[in-house]
């Protein structure tokens, strides 16, 4: 049984086996969580991401998929990069958002990670409504068959923390 914990704060300050990065498909850094992880983690993360782009992911990491790199200077062993979907009013992409959580946990299992920190994937510039993102994230993690013992959702602000808290209750 996986324990789920919610904290409001900075995901780059978490001490866990793996930190999940809400990456863009380029894997080369960006804004929000992605930029913060690359800045605090240092150049080793970007170096491994460039190698992934040069080998397996020449066209970028597909939406809903996940891949791991070193965590560089972060207090973690790995960063698991996953590409969330952009929210759409006209197309249901919730299966892609759920896939981000499932795939990330699958990568964590392959690595032997027992503690994983997730952000609220796709809720920033990808505009996924926070309450729905919380529902999908929590339902997916609860249903996942994983060896991960503890999942911590690290919510950046009070709005996100409240949405996840309301959903967890």
UniProtKB/TrEMBL annotation:
Protein's organism? Streptomyces fuscus
Source domain of life: Bacteria
Q: Show the CDD domains listed in the entry.
A: Macro_OAADPr_deacetylase
What is the designated name of this protein? O-acetyl-ADP-ribose deacetylase
Q: Which residues form the Macro domain?
A: 1-169
């Amino acid at each position: 049984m996986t324990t789920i914990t919610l904290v409001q704060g900075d995901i780059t300050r978490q001490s866990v086996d793996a930190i999940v990065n809400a990456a863009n498909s380029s894997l080369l850094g960006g804004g929000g969580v992605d930029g913060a992880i690359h800045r605090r983690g240092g150049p080793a993360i970007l170096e491994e991401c460039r190698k992934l782009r040069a080998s397996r992911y020449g066209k970028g990491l597909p939406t809903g998929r996940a891949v791991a790199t070193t965590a560089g200077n972060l207090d973690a062993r790995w960063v698991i990069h996953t590409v969330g979907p952009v929210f759409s009013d006209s197309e249901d992409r919730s299966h892609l958002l759920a896939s981000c959580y499932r795939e990330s946990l699958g990568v964590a299992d392959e690595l032997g990670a027992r503690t994983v920190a997730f952000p609220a994937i796709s809720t920033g510039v990808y505009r996924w409504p926070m309450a729905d993102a919380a529902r999908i994230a929590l339902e997916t993690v609860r249903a996942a068959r994983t060896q991960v013992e503890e999942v911590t959702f690290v919510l950046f602000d009070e709005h996100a923390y409240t949405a996840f808290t309301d959903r967890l209750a």
